[in-house]
Design a protein that fits this description.
Blueprint lengths: L14 E5 L9 H7 L6 E8 H6 L3 H11 L4 E3 L4 E3 L4 H4 L1 H13 L7 E6 L1 H13 L5 E6 L2 H7 L7 E3 L2 E5 L7 E5 L8 H18 L1 H9 L1 H5 L3 H21 L16 H10 L6 H18 L5 H13 L14 H12 L5 E6 L2 E5 L4 H17 L17
Parallel strand pairs: 1-9, 2-3, 2-4, 2-5, 5-6, 6-9
Antiparallel strand pairs: 7-8, 10-11
Helix pairs in contact: 5-6, 7-8, 7-11, 8-9, 8-11, 8-13, 12-13, 12-15, 13-14, 13-16
The chain binds nicotinamide-adenine-dinucleotide and zinc ion.
Length: 397
């Protein structure tokens, strides 16, 4: 037998920029980014979420004027393409097909750009189209939901649904850059605004106790979506997600460990059982509550920490129980989650706030008991809970 071992490393780097009024005449965030290519001008196709196009006053005109003002750097290859916002664009293969055909018709090359403006779903679909046309057209993401700005839009994945399965087709493809414009959030309904905050609680719980403390002390402002608190939350949450991708040693998820999926094994199931009636973040909040309760009842997580976690989620306005939880087949849900991970079942649990461990099996009886506790808790609300962050316990840092 003869063997040639191939080995090479590729290093990736991209910026996640934060701004407001991205297409205002004086804003040079996008122009500056395109200036880094050294090309003049850079050809681009803009893809916009239909809800964002509908609700953001004058957006199309602003984009067109921005292009004229910076014509030395940007050349729009075609008028913006409006893609149906929400999960439908990942569901319907025509949306990706249309983006591919625009790339072909307007002769975009691998050095051209797709600029995707929208929620996580549009970014996933446009990102998939960008990654697969010519094996990779450059992608600039402009996330317009909280969840997309602090989580879905800043990472390295894209995908669409196929064969009735979520994200069945997709690639790992780091973007050229991400620009988070907080002004896009003005038109977002409260449920969407709140939903994205659940991912910040999740990442704080698995990685950063002091971020959890800041969310806890900002909880009243966050519940009102007060801009300064939202901005702090989005920035740190995005930063922690990026840190995780860069430092986990597994940016392209070859292993079975998926710490960012804390609380997600049952959240995915709840979304499915409710037929999408609850938003992803609403399901994640319930998932976090359940896995925190389980961590506590397994003797891993202290009682005060548990109380603060549940109290933060409730003060943010999340409901921590849904009747669909009573229909949850725990064994089946865990089996499906294992399949989703590939390989060994790996469920993140908490040993403390900011400190996760990995479990490879769960006591399903205890899990059912925790589901019952959440149901009882709902019927007992309101309960008195600690007012301020507790002092940091050295053990948990
Ligand atoms: N690639 C990843 O790493 C990753 C990570 C997490 C989630 N996701 C994906 O993200 C998707 C969920 O994203 P999402 O929570 O952003 O929801 P979404 O993209 O489904 O958007 C929700 C709704 O809000 C609308 N919308 C978007 N921006 C708006 C704005 N500024 N004002 C008013 N309405 C607006 C959309 O049209 C849609 O109707 C899922 O498909 C999920 O699989 C991807
Ligand atoms: Zn999530």
């Amino acid at each position: 037998m003869r063997t040639i071992t191939q080995k090479f490393a590729v290093s990736y780097s991209y910026q996640v920029l934060f701004t407001r009024g991205l297409f205002d005449p004086g804003n040079v965030t996008l122009a500056g980014l395109l200036g880094q290519t050294g090309k003049s001008p850079n050809r681009a196709l803009v893809v916009i979420d239909s809800e964002v196009a509908r609700l953001t006053t004058g957006l199309l005109e602003k984009i067109s004027n921005y292009g004229k003002q910076h014509d030395a750097l940007i050349e729009f290859a075609a008028p913006p393409f409006i893609v149906r916002g929400g999960e439908i664009c990942k569901q319907e293969p025509q949306e990706v097909d249309k983006i591919h055909s625009l790339v072909e018709r307007h002769r975009l090359c691998r050095h051209s750009f797709i600029i995707a403006i929208g929620g996580g779903a549009v970014l996933d679909a446009a990102g998939y189209a960008a990654a697969t046309a010519h094996r990779g057209v450059r992608l600039i993401r402009m996330p317009t939901t909280v969840l997309a700005q602090n989580d879905a839009g800043v990472g390295v994945k894209n995908g669409v649904n196929s064969f009735g399965r979520k994200n069945f087709l997709g690639t790992f493809a780091p973007p050229f850059a991400v620009i988070n414009d907080l002004d896009f959030l003005h038109t977002l309904p409260s449920r969407e605004l709140r939903s994205g905050i659940a991912e910040a609680v999740k990442v704080a719980l698995i990685r950063d106790r002091s971020f959890f403390d800041s969310l806890y002390s900002d909880r009243k402002q966050l519940a009102l979506f007060e801009p300064a608190a939202m901005e702090r939350m989005i920035f740190r949450c995005a930063e922690l997600h990026l840190e995780h991708i860069a430092t986990s040693g597994d940016p392209f998820e070859f292993g079975s460990s998926r710490p960012l999926d804390f609380g997600h094994w049952n959240a995915h199931k709840l979304e499915e059982l409710t037929g999408g009636e609850i938003r992803h973040g609403e399901a994640v909040a319930i998932g976090i509550a359940l896995d925190s309760l389980y961590s506590s009842h397994s003797g891993l997580l202290g009682d005060l920490d548990l109380r603060r976690i549940l109290s933060l989620l409730e003060d943010l306005g999340f409901s921590l129980y849904h009747p669909a939880l009573s229909w949850l087949d725990v064994e089946k849900a865990l089996r499906e989650f294992q399949e989703h991970l590939g390989g060994e079942l790996t469920i993140p649990l908490l040993e403390g706030i900011g400190k996760k461990i990995e479990a490879h099996q769960l006591d399903t009886e205890l899990m059912r008991h925790c589901i019952n506790l959440l149901a009882e808790r709902r019927s007992l609300l309101p309960v008195s809970l600690p007012a301020d962050p507790a002092p940091v316990r050295a053990k948990e840092n």
